[in-house]
Design a protein that fits this description.
Blueprint: E1 2-5, E2 12-15, H1 25-38, H2 54-60, H3 62-65, E3 68-70, E4 76-78, H4 83-98, H5 113-127, E5 138-142, H6 149-158, E6 161-166, H7 169-181, E7 188-192, E8 211-216, H8 224-227, H9 248-251, H10 256-271, E9 275-282, H11 288-297, E10 302-310, E11 313-321, H12 332-339, E12 345-349, H13 351-362, H14 371-385, E13 389-393, E14 399-406, H15 414-442, H16 452-466, H17 490-498, H18 508-522, E15 539-548, E16 551-561, H19 564-583
Parallel strand pairs: 5-6, 5-8, 6-7, 8-9
Antiparallel strand pairs: 1-2, 3-4, 9-11, 10-11, 12-16, 13-14, 14-15, 15-16
Length: 584
């Protein structure tokens, strides 16, 4: 039977012989879902690859043991819908892993340690914590809560100084107590502030101090119905796996988290460089875009964001700065795109095809003994005619590697360009005849009776139209006599043959500069090189020609550039040209 599973990050329909109620696959999928999101936790988070061991913690801490349940198979679990169990886990982890002892009332927000630890590590990335370890780092925690968890973690792990603000009387009392019982009063200053106070009023007495950052876990919801998930939660999503604790001021604010963070942005526009980094955590992904747009409209120069993952819980964070010299960490989506392995574009030349290529060039010049050298020579000739810069680079045994730099797109519309060239050549006699009649009627002293000079001028114009300069790029003249479906050029062939002896020693950078100069002189067509591109090349890639049994395989690995599809087009063109050469 098929049933819909929304437990995964991407909902799927799961095919199973059991019903939804009796199937054990759902528990497996839940476990897989949590593991998948844990991979997105901050790389320095201690819980990323080593989640808490409930069995060990239960055997060591009696107050935690009473909330642990063991099933018939011996598996230990915790009911996250019980506030007492969640509080016991938080207090136990802080005691075991950080040596912190705290008290949290059940009526106030109970933080989860791994998720808060993600935020601390991200702030470390923002301020460059490892660059100057002797510098005193100053931070502000807006709404520190009863646990005062951010200042306690930051002071314990990194020795940061914190100004922790709080508007709730109970939270202020517990936060002060937690700081004192951990002997961190010299690093953490907890202050009581009026309602709706964020940064401006808190910094009135600290007029000359420049803080390195501020952090905030704002109230996510605008009203009680939204906090309960009414009209704010996708009905296809499963219910939350943990209980939502917290006081009114901790979970709700006028306008929700969107308006709350906008107020912080408004304060930052007045404080500006009083803080190097402003940051906030978000509970809804939909809040990220309008807040980034708000910062962009206000002209804030540096804006970045990230994701916080714990189990199946996702949070987002936004940071901005008015300092031009700060280094922004890359957003997670961009990191994943950079880290995602890219498969090379490949095509295979069978043994018969390689043998035919060898026969095609055997009559003109000495043939290399290795099959990959034959294929490489063919590819180099095609690249030379396409004006694609290349040079050989060191590689392994039984393979040849070429580093390619494409300056302009010369492998598209080849047939159309060839037709246009042929049409111009057909129109040349007609233009010559018209020139002869015009010359005879006017009896020009500069033109002979046969109109030869006028014809030469027309041919010169055509040469100027078709002329394309080729940079020295490490080409191979082995196959210079082979036909290609590409317009030929006498000047190109002369430059190609004269530069063959020394072109392999040229580096890719000098070749790129020469190509830029020649392209500027030749004034290439707009369709060959995209307009508005700040880069002097379309793309760079690494090509490997290697043995594949008795066959030869060509691989093209993307390095950088404007569009990966351009490399795909070039690969297809090379393959088609080789096959055309074999059957011709």
């Amino acid at each position: 039977k098929g049933w819909f599973c929304a437990q995964l990050p991407r909902p799927v329909v799961f095919q199973c012989s059991e019903t939804r109620e009796t199937c054990n696959c759902l528990a497996i999928l839940k476990l897989w879902s949590g593991m998948a999101l844990n991979k997105s936790m901050h790389p320095r988070n201690r819980y990323k690859d080593k989640p808490p061991d409930f069995s060990y913690l239960a055997s060591k801490y009696k107050e935690f043991q009473q909330h642990v349940h063991t099933n018939l198979t011996g598996k230990v679990s915790l009911n996250f819908k019980e506030p007492e169990a969640v509080r016991a886990l938080t207090c136990t982890l802080l005691k075991e892993d950080f040596g912190l002892t705290i008290d949290i009332p059940l009526e106030r927000l109970i933080p989860t340690v791994p998720l808060r630890l993600n935020y601390i590590h991200w702030v470390e990335d923002l301020i460059g914590c490892g660059t100057n370890k002797n510098k005193l780092i100053r931070g502000i925690d807006i709404g520190t809560g009863a646990s005062c968890i951010y200042p306690l973690l930051g002071a314990t792990m990194n020795g940061w100084f914190f100004l922790a603000t709080e508007v709730d009387d109970m939270c202020f009392s517990y936060a002060t107590k937690n700081v004192e019982q951990n002997n961190l009063s010299d690093l953490i200053k907890v202050v009581k502030v009026p309602q709706k106070t964020l940064l401006m009023d808190a910094l009135k007495e600290e007029s000359e101090i420049v803080y390195d950052f501020c952090m905030c876990n704002p109230p996510f919801f605008a009203n009680q119905m939204e906090a309960q998930g009414v009209n704010s939660r996708n009905p296809s999503r499963p219910p939350p796996s943990s209980i939502n604790t917290g006081g009114i001021t901790e979970i709700m604010a006028e306008g929700g988290e969107l308006e709350f963070v906008k107020r912080i942005i408004h304060d930052s526009l007045q404080l500006k460089k009083r803080l190097r980094w402003y940051s906030c955590m978000l509970g809804k992904k939909c809040s990220l875009v309008p807040l980034k747009e708000e910062l962009q409209q206000q002209g804030v120069p540096k804006v970045t964001h990230t994701e916080f993952c714990q189990g199946r819980t996702m949070r987002w964070a936004l940071a901005w700065s008015f300092y031009e010299d700060v280094i922004m960490p890359s957003p997670p989506s961009k990191k994943r795109k950079l880290e995602k392995p890219r498969k090379p574009i490949t095509f295979t030349l069978l043994e018969y095809t390689v043998k035919e290529l060898r026969n095609k060039v055997a009559s003109s010049e000495p043939v290399p003994p290795e099959a990959i050298e034959v294929v490489t020579a063919v590819v180099e000739k095609i690249l030379t005619d396409l004006k694609v810069l290349f040079k050989r680079v060191p590689c392994g045994k039984d393979e040849v590697s070429l580093f390619l730099t494409a300056i302009q797109n010369s492998w598209v519309h080849v047939r159309r360009k060839k037709r246009d060239g042929a049409r111009q050549l057909r129109e040349l006699p007609r233009a010559t005849t018209e020139a002869d009649s015009t010359s005879q009627s006017h009896s020009s002293p500069n033109t002979g009776p046969d109109g030869a000079e006028r014809s030469n001028v027309g041919a010169g114009d055509m040469a100027g139209v078709n002329e394309e300069e080729l940079p020295a790029n490490g080409g191979n003249s082995l196959l210079s006599v082979m036909p290609l479906d590409q317009e030929s050029n006498m000047e190109t062939e002369e430059r190609f043959s004269s530069s063959d002896s020394c072109s392999t020693a040229l580096g890719a950078d000098s070749a790129v500069e020469k190509e830029k100069a020649s392209s500027a002189r030749a004034n290439p067509e707009a369709e060959d090189t995209p307009k508005g591109s700040g880069s002097c090349f379309l793309f760079k890639c690494l090509m490997n020609v290697k043995k594949d049994g008795r066959n030869a395989q060509v691989e093209m690995h993307w390095v950088e550039g404007q569009n990966r599809d351009l490399m795909n087009q070039l690969s297809t063109f090379l393959r088609n040209q080789i096959f055309k050469l074999v059957v011709s």
